[in-house]
Amino acid sequence: MQDFFTLIGNLGFPMAVTAFLLVRIEARLGALNDSIQVLTQTIAQK
């Protein structure tokens, strides 16, 4: 039983942190992509 808790501690926590960070970064990447598209359109108009 102790091995199971160690396994969860060693694998579960890093996986949870990774998932949390990926969700946060995904939103920022979407906003960055939108900004780059607007910048590209603005440069193309000039």
Verbal overview:
The protein is mostly helical. The protein has one domain. The protein has 1 helix and no strands. The longest helix is centred in the middle third of the chain and has 44 residues.
Quick overview:
The chain contains 1 helix and no strands. With 46 residues, the protein is mainly alpha-helical. The model has no long low-confidence stretch (mean pLDDT 91).
List the helices and strands and how they pair.
Blueprint (H helix, E strand, L loop, with lengths): L1 H44 L1
Shape: rod-shaped
What integer is the average pLDDT?
A: 91
End-to-end CA span: 67 Å
In helices, the fraction of residues equals over 70%
Catalogue the unreliable spans. none
Which H/E pattern describes the elements?
H
How much β-strand is present in the residues? under 5%
* Number of discrete helical segments: 1
Biggest sheet descriptor? none
Rounded radius of gyration (Å): 20 Å
Helix- and strand-based class?
A: mainly alpha
Number of strands: 0
| Total discrete domains | 1
Descriptive keywords:
single chain; mainly alpha; 1 helix; 0% strand; rod-shaped; transmembrane helix; YvrJ; YvrJ family protein; transmembrane
